[in-house]
Specification:
The protein is α+β, with helices and mostly antiparallel strands. The chain is built from 10 helices and 11 strands.
Length: 312
């Protein structure tokens, strides 16, 4: 399907020439800032190029953990207790920031940059000394830092689709020999780079079926509330004793596209890629059905002074 042309400059020592590249769909298989946060998605939207995955708004909200949790709260989605602060606040009023955190939350705590993923810059703190050390790390990565209470087991679920055509995968429980999965746990375990599939996990998660069904339904709700598209992974935290579950965050471009969660559903990697491309083309066509301009004499009248009360 010839949807658009991508033009770029090819430079040489003595010449520059413009070449066109036919593009059907762009697959932004990118992690983190300037890739997963809506910036690339915005560029592609301006160029009217179809792309796989979430749009600008969902990508942005999915990256910013603070805005994400505020939206979850507004929509009645259960989350763990948290607080946050700005780097400038910590630099100018360090003792006040520490005091406020300890007044609002109880140890153990997790300290995270608000706009990074893959466990980068994340630390666990069991006391004040560790909290200060964790904050000193987190503020190097972002101007906003979030503090959460998360001493619970992790359960993950993936959602695939767009609009009302959504399906939730089986649930998994990632297992780490450390307190939480670090970046190396996720992507470089045993010296390899096989992605999240190489991590130790329990599939399906060893939880009651009714709880798995609750998580699947809640995953779809999160996906719809944020207006996501394509495939995402929603990470939950669960209390082993009460079985209460809380949404931790969403990964709008999950590691390995969470394909390992779809294999038990009969969707292999090739089929998953095909579905994501089909969703991207469908969403692009729907977007182009919108009307973005309308004829009006308003600006002409304003420029000619024909509207009373107008300011020049």
């Amino acid at each position: 399907m010839d949807l658009c042309n991508f033009r770029f400059l090819k430079s040489g020592i003595f010449k520059k020439e413009v070449e066109s590249l036919k593009v059907d769909v762009i697959f932004p298989a990118l992690h983190g800032m300037n890739g997963e946060d809506g910036t690339i998605q915005g560029l592609l939207s301006l160029a009217n190029i179809p792309y796989v995955g979430c749009g600008v708004m969902a990508s942005l909200v999915g990256m910013d953990k603070i805005i994400m949790k505020d939206i979850f709260k507004a929509n009645g989605i259960p989350i763990v207790n948290y607080t946050w602060f700005l780097r400038k606040e910590y630099e100018s009023k360090k003792e006040n920031v520490i005091y406020n955190i300890e007044q609002q939350l109880k140890y153990p705590l997790f300290v995270k940059p608000a706009n990074l993923g893959s466990s980068i810059g994340i630390s666990k703190a069991n006391n004040r000394e560790q909290l200060i050390s964790a904050i000193e790390i987190a503020v190097r990565y972002d101007r906003k830092v979030i503090i959460e209470v998360e001493d619970l087991i992790e359960i993950n679920c993936s959602v695939l689709g767009t609009d009302d055509e959504l399906n939730a995968s089986i649930c998994e429980q990632p297992v780490s020999w450390k307190t939480f999965l670090t970046f190396d746990d996720k992507y470089m375990r045993n010296g390899n780079s096989k992605g999240m599939k190489s991590a130790t996990r329990k599939m399906p998660a060893p939880i009651p079926e009714d709880k798995s069904e609750e998580i699947r339904k809640l995953s779809i709700k999160v996906f719809k509330v944020l207006d996501c598209a394509g495939v995402s992974r929603i990470d939950f935290m669960m209390n082993k004793n009460t079985m209460n579950r809380y949404v931790n965050e969403i990964n709008t471009i999950p590691g390995s596209l969470a394909f390992y969660l779809w294999e038990p559903e009969g969707i292999d990697f090739r089929e998953l890629i095909n579905r994501l491309i089909q969703i991207a083309i469908k969403n692009h066509e729907n977007q182009n059905n919108n009307i973005y301009t309308f004829d009006t004499e308003l600006l002409k009248k304003l420029s000619s002074g024909g509207i009373k009360g107008g300011k020049s």
